[in-house]
Write a sequence for this structure.
C-alpha cells in the first residue's frame, strides 16, 4: 500500500494546485440542516446552484484532516479559518469552471485519463506519487492498483478515486490554459504601435505654473463640487459590504488570590521534594512543565538561581523556592553538579505551577462585563461609560464578511457574524463575547452595503483632486489675459520655463513635474513646432511647444514585442486572470459568515 501512502502524502499539494478536485467525491443528495441562523442551509449560491451546508461541511472535514497531516496534527485558529475560506472558494471555482469546461466542450475521456497514468508522459503528480528515489516510474504498481481496485478496502478505494479526480481536474485545467495560450495573437500593426509607444521620443519647451503656487486656503470646495466629482468618478470607489464597530476588551488576568494559590501550591511540595528519591517522576506528577535533564550554566538559569546554585556552595538535594519566573511559581532542586572545566554546570529539577486566572476570577470579570452591558444599552451610554470608567475603546472601521482578524482579538469570527447578522442594527450593543483570556463588548457604528462608497466616506480622499482641478481652472482663466505671450504669463503668475526631453507614450513621468498622463498624451500627439493650448494637468497648468520628434527606426521584425506581450498574457493566465474575469460575471450569494 506504499503508493496509496504516497497519494496521501501528496494529496494536500494536489488540493492546493488543482483546487477543485475533491468536490465530486463529497457531493451527494442535497440535505437540509439547521444552523445557528434558523433553517438556512446554503453557504453560497453560484448562478442559482446551491452549495449546501452539508456538502460544504463534508469537504471542510476532508480538507481539515489533510491540513493537519501537512502541519503535524495541529491548526491555529487562523489556519482553521483559512481552510474554511479556501474550501468555499474551491467549491465556487468548481461550479464556475465546470460550466466553462462544458461550454467549451473540454472533457477527459477514460482513455485519456488512463494515459495520464500509464502513457509515455504521465501526469506530474503520478510521477511524484509512484516514482522511486531515482525518479523511475513504477508502472507495474499503478497497473496493479487499477486491476485490483475492487479488492481494496473502502478507505484505499476512496483515496484512489480522489487521486484520479485530482489528475482529471489537473488535465482539464491544463487543456483550458493551453486553449487560452493558443488564442494569443498580436497583429503586426498592433505590434508596431506598441513599439512606437515605447521608442518614439518627443522633446518639448514647457511653460508651467505649479498648483502649489496657490494656497489651499484660497480654494473653496462646495457641496456641488463634491457631488459633481462623486457622480463622475464613483465607479472608482466600489466596495464590498462592510461594517464598522467600536469595542472594548476586558482582559481576564490572574488575581492576587490566583497568584497566592500558585505560590502556595509549590510551597506545600517543598518538603516532599526534598525527600523524594525519584525527582523525575516527582516533576512529572506535580509540574506544569516537563522535566529538563540538560546541564545548565549561569546563563541558562534565572538570575535568582545563579547565586543559589553556583555561588553559595549548596549541595545536591538542596531545594530553593518558591520563586516566580515567566508566569510560573517554581521550586528548584539541585540534582547534580559538575565543577570540572572552565564553567561550572548543574542539573536541576523544577516543579512549576502556572499562574492562571481561576474560575472564580473569570466569573468576577464576567459579572463586571455583564453589568457594563446591562447598564449601557445605547451608543451614548456605551461611550459615556467607557469615558467614565477609563476604558480603552478600540475601533475597526472596515469589517468584512471574510474578516478573520480584528486588532487585539484572537479568533473573532463570532463578532463578525454578529456585526453582519440581519437583526443587528447600527447603534446595537452586543452581548458579551467570550474569547481567549478576554471578554469583548462591541457597538455597531456603521453599515455600508455593497456598491459605491458613500460620498461622505471618501470626500477626504478626493478633496485634494478637486482642489487641484479648481486651481487648474483658476490658472487657466487667469492665463487667458496673456493670450499667447506665455513668457509674460509665467513671469506674472509665478511660473517657470524648462525643457522636457525624450517623452514617450508609455512613460509616466513628465520631467520633474511628476505623473502627467494628460500632458504626455498631448505632447506625443502633436507635430514638431506646434504649440498647445493651456493644459490643466495633474500638478500644474502647462503650455508645451514640441521642439523635436524622433521616430524610432522600424525593426526587422517585432519578435521581441511579441515575446513581451505573450509573456504578459501568459502571466495573466497563470495568475488566474481568466477565472477572475469569469467570477466577476457570475452572481454569487455568499452566506458563509453565518456558518464559520
Amino acid at each position: 500500500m506504499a503508493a496509496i501512502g504516497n497519494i496521501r502524502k501528496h494529496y494536500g499539494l494536489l488540493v492546493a494546485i488543482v483546487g477543485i478536485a475533491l468536490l465530486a467525491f463529497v457531493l451527494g443528495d442535497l440535505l437540509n440542516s439547521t444552523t445557528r441562523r434558523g433553517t438556512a442551509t446554503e453557504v453560497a449560491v453560484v448562478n442559482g446552484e446551491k452549495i449546501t451546508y452539508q456538502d460544504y461541511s463534508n469537504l471542510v472535514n476532508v480538507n481539515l484532516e489533510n491540513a493537519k497531516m501537512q502541519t503535524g496534527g495541529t491548526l491555529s485558529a487562523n489556519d482553521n479559518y483559512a481552510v474554511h475560506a479556501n474550501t468555499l472558494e474551491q467549491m465556487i471555482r468548481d461550479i464556475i469552471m465546470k460550466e466553462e469546461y462544458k461550454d467549451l466542450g473540454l472533457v477527459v475521456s477514460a482513455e485519456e485519463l488512463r494515459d495520464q497514468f500509464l502513457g509515455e508522459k504521465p501526469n506530474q503528480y503520478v510521477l511524484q506519487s509512484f516514482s522511486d528515489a531515482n525518479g523511475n516510474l513504477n508502472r507495474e504498481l499503478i497497473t496493479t492498483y487499477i486491476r485490483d481496485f475492487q479488492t481494496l478496502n473502502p478507505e484505499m478505494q476512496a483515496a484512489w478515486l480522489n487521486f484520479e479526480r485530482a489528475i482529471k481536474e489537473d488535465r482539464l485545467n491544463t487543456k483550458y490554459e493551453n486553449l487560452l495560450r493558443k488564442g494569443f495573437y498580436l497583429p503586426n500593426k498592433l505590434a508596431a504601435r506598441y513599439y512606437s509607444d515605447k521608442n518614439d521620443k518627443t522633446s518639448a519647451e514647457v511653460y508651467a505654473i505649479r498648483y502649489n503656487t496657490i494656497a489651499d486656503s484660497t480654494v473653496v470646495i462646495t457641496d456641488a463640487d463634491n457631488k459633481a466629482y462623486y457622480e463622475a468618478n464613483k465607479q472608482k470607489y466600489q466596495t464590498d459590504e462592510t461594517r464598522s464597530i467600536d469595542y472594548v476588551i476586558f482582559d481576564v488576568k490572574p488575581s492576587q488570590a490566583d497568584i497566592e494559590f500558585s505560590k502556595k501550591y509549590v510551597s506545600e511540595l517543598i518538603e516532599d521534594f526534598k525527600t523524594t528519591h525519584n525527582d523525575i517522576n516527582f516533576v512529572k506528577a506535580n509540574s506544569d512543565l516537563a522535566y529538563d535533564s540538560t546541564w545548565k550554566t549561569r546563563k541558562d538559569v534565572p538570575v535568582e538561581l545563579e547565586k543559589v546554585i553556583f555561588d553559595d556552595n549548596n549541595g545536591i538535594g538542596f531545594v530553593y523556592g518558591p520563586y516566580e519566573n515567566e508566569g510560573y511559581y517554581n521550586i528548584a532542586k539541585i540534582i547534580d553538579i559538575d565543577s570540572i572545566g572552565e564553567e561550572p554546570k548543574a542539573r536541576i529539577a523544577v516543579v512549576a505551577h502556572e499562574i492562571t486566572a481561576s474560575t472564580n476570577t473569570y466569573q468576577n470579570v464576567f459579572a463586571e462585563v455583564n453589568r457594563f452591558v446591562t447598564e449601557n444599552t445605547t451608543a451614548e451610554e456605551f461611550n459615556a461609560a467607557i469615558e467614565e470608567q477609563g476604558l480603552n475603546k478600540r475601533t475597526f472601521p472596515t469589517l468584512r464578511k471574510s474578516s478573520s482578524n480584528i486588532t487585539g482579538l484572537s479568533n473573532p469570527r463570532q463578532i463578525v457574524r454578529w456585526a453582519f447578522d440581519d437583526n443587528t442594527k447600527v447603534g446595537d450593543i452586543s452581548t458579551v463575547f467570550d474569547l481567549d483570556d478576554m471578554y469583548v463588548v462591541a457597538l455597531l457604528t456603521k453599515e455600508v452595503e455593497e456598491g459605491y462608497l458613500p460620498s461622505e466616506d471618501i470626500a477626504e480622499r478626493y478633496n485634494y483632486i478637486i482642489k487641484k482641478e479648481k486651481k487648474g481652472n483658476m490658472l487657466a482663466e487667469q492665463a487667458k489675459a496673456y493670450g499667447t505671450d506665455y513668457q509674460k504669463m509665467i513671469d506674472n503668475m509665478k511660473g517657470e520655463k524648462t525643457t522636457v526631453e525624450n517623452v514617450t507614450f508609455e512613460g509616466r513621468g513628465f520631467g520633474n513635474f511628476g505623473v502627467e498622463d494628460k500632458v504626455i498624451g498631448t505632447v506625443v500627439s502633436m507635430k514638431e513646432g506646434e504649440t498647445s493650448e493651456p493644459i490643466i494637468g495633474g500638478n500644474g497648468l502647462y503650455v508645451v511647444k514640441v521642439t523635436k520628434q524622433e521616430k524610432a527606426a522600424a525593426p526587422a521584425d517585432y519578435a521581441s514585442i511579441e515575446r513581451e506581450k505573450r509573456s504578459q498574457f501568459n502571466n495573466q493566465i497563470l495568475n488566474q486572470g481568466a477565472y477572475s474575469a469569469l467570477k466577476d460575471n457570475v452572481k454569487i450569494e455568499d452566506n458563509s459568515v453565518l456558518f464559520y
About this structure: The mean pLDDT is 88. The CA atoms of residues 46 and 95 lie 7 Å apart.
